[in-house]
Amino acid sequence: MKLTTIVREGRDRAAVVVDLAVGWDGGAARPGGEGGSDPNPPPPGYGRYYLDVGRARDLLAANQSRLLWPAGLTFAETAALGGKGEPLQMRRLLAGGPGALAVLGELVEAVRLLAERGDGILAAPALVPAGVARLRTPVPDAPLCYVLHGNAATVWCRQSEMDPNLHVMTRIPAMRIRTVNALLGHDEPLYLPASAKLSFGNELGFVIGQEARNVRAEDAYRYVAGYVCTNDCYSNVYSQLAADAPTRINSTMQVGDKATDGCGPVGPWIATAEEVGDPHDLILLTRQDGLLRNRSHSGAYIVGVEAAVERLSHRFPLLPGTIISLGAAGWDGISDEPVDRTAGRSVLEVEAERIGVLRTPLVYPDADEQAAREGGSPYLFAGTLDGTTPLDRWEADDGPTALTGLPAPRGFWMVFGNQRGAAEHEIEQTDSPAVPAAVAYPTTTLRLLPAATGKDGEAAVMAVLPDAGVVRVTCHLAMVIGPEPAYAETAETAAQRVAGYATLLSVHDAGVEARLALPTTDYERRFATFFGYCGAGHHALAPATAVSDLGAPGGEAGRAVVLRVGDREYAATTAVYRHTPGAVVEHLSRALTLLPGDVIGLGPLGPAVELPAEELADGVVVKAEVEGLAAVDVQVRRAAAS
Predict the structure, then answer these.
(1) Which of 45, 499, 565, 566 is the most buried (most CB within 10 A)?
(2) For residue range 405-422, what is the model confidence (pLDDT) as tens digits?
(3) Cα separation of 433 and 89, whole Å?
């Protein structure tokens, strides 16, 4: 099957590609889509449609006796596809795992038989012709889009002078994360920021079905719903600001380049396992304006599907709908060279054998168009349809909120090198005085504490892995974005996009870096350090205090900070920050949209404090307090070996 998301009646809806014989509806097959000829045409003699899964399920409920017979499907079985009347969304469908996909396959077959051999008028309301369908990225609200970096020997043998045997990907998956504002679907336009340069290239991706925790490599495919094409677009909006900075800072800036609005096209659909076969034996092609720019093979990956699922799922849960890109299998970063940029438009295509072609119109806004969209988020601009935006179409809030009235965070950022003396005090030993150096982390590593922590005053438990190395904790001031999205903010408007502030406690596991085999490179150590923050719930966020109740968080004196570890106490102040909250919002929103509820940790306050290894088995009580904010009160302990 081929699974995707379409926009219908103001909602994002899970859909399945269905090719039906021309003539079943009087010959109105209407194949193709916007932007010229369809790069994914149906077979000769067939027309392409998208089956609205929720609508098909409801038709089954309303016409049980007439719809059940083709596939022997019972109405009770369709409960795996959501409740009656519910506009089924892709994350809900994938969460059902193989069982839900099996029921879906039977439903698709029932609709096919009805359309071609039975009473097609019953199935018609659930079928959308390809020519009028609006596709989104298959999982528009993906909980995580994780991009493996430098995952092929080509990068190290041909594009750099590094020894591939010393490359970090042989040990941990190097981290690049795209937040949801970067995701685009098939044929959705990418509006390139004015004066920005763009690089792109084909990458094979896969999508998690049922939730994956502590998965063994041999079991990985049970948790893979299917495969997608991903286009590794990235601007230079952020990295050009630190072109002369040390490598650590420049590399960190590239996270923003990849999270730039629209720079993560994914699609054209999720092709399930029976469609693809061996994911490590696929030819991958990259084209621009019809010209072949690169050709590679998925067998070149150092870390494949099995290892990626195993290594990541042992650090944090992979939730349904998580997109994991295996990185560039060939040349990494093809420069944008359109046939005619003055035309204001170019077309990028990435193709994966047995999956399909993902097409992305690239738009170079002229001065008038740029002025018309001035201050408007490309994420919302490109995703608007029938008066609704992606934010309007997402299903109801699926978790606790960091601030009353705001959704759960879709993005979680941490700023590094923001403390005066950071090179001495921070774990990363990174100092970034010129610009805020922000890294996106999985939201699954962020734990939102309730107003009352634990029962009868007990501290919440933050568990580190059984094989954790040296464990350190840091206290941060965090801000929560809202109530409106933040994009292209100025120094005057940035602070208005902060809804509130909260105390954040972060746990770092140095064992990832300690386990690197010698000799190591700075590249390896840098990503190992960042990956040490990627543990399930390794960041505890206290309930936020609204700006209206708090006032300015800083000033010359700042706010007092106290970190208590057992019977030890450490004092600091928010005045150590180089970059103010407004400056961080202004910087991050240059070319990416920060969404309501997103959390940004402004960096450690004071030095990282090492926890006594001998006390981790029973737990170490840690309390972090920022003046005027709710405290984080937790117990950090080593999880029992499974």
Answers:
(1) 499
(2) 788 899 999 999 999 887
(3) 43
Instruction: Report how far apart, in Å, the C-alpha atoms of 125 and of each of 25, 55, 110, 128, 244 are.
Output: 12, 8, 14, 8, 58
The reply to whether 443 and 303 lie within a common domain is: no
Same domain, 223 and 350: yes
Which amino acid would we find at residue 462? Answer: M
Q: Which domain holds residue 51?
A: 2-136
Q: For 330-366, how does the pLDDT look when each residue is reduced to its tens digit (9 = 90+)?
A: 888 899 999 998 888 999 999 999 999 999 999 988 7
Q: Domain boundary at 85, 111, 136, which?
A: 136
Helix (H, G, I), strand (E, B) or coil at 533: coil
Q: Are residues 333 and 412 in the same domain?
A: no
We report the CATH number of the domain holding residue 463 as 3.90.850.10
- Pull the structure tokens for residue 306: 């099995």
Instruction: Tell whether pTM > 0.90.
Output: yes
194 with 261, same domain: the answer is yes
What contacts 406, CB < 8 A, 6 or more positions away?
480, 482, 483, 499, 596, 597
- Among 157-171, 234-248, 258-272, 563-577, which is the least confidently predicted range? 157-171
Q: If 0-12 CB within 10 Å is exposed, 13-18 middle and 19+ buried, where does residue 530 land? A: buried
> Pick from 136, 162, 178: which residue ends a domain?
136
Which token pair is 266? 């994914």
**Backbone phi and psi for residue 99, each to the nearest 5 degrees, phi listed first:** -60, -45
